[in-house]
Design goal:
31% helix, globular
């Protein structure tokens, strides 16, 4: 299992994937935190029993899918951030894909 994320100043969205291949894995769990009202990420709005507070994540999920398809060649600083903290990685475009690929490579 591995994960990829999109984070802005207002939200943090995380998808967890199954399967051995980053490119063909399926989403098995999602998290969404409203960082304006929940800066410590204690309340996963997609993981509670209230569907009325579920945010529309179609746009952010589509952005994450695009970011997962990028490679280190698309992001010149990828090698610099490969050893950086997860928090720093989550703050940069294309980091989700680089992180997912790096975590998969490091486990094998």
């Amino acid at each position: 299992m591995f994960w990829a994320a999109e984070e802005t100043r207002t939200y943090h969205y995380i998808q967890y994937y199954d399967g051995p291949d980053v490119d063909t894995a399926n989403v098995v769990f999602r998290e969404y935190y409203d960082l304006k009202t929940d800066p410590f990420e204690l309340d996963n709005l997609l993981g509670d029993s209230d569907p009325d507070n579920d945010p529309d994540v179609k746009a952010v999920a589509a952005q994450l899918a695009r970011d997962r398809k990028c490679s280190a060649a698309d992001w010149p600083l990828a090698e610099l951030y490969r050893s950086a903290s997860l928090c720093n990685l989550a703050r940069h475009r294309c980091a989700a894909a680089v992180l997912a690929r790096a975590s998969r490579t490091n486990r094998d």
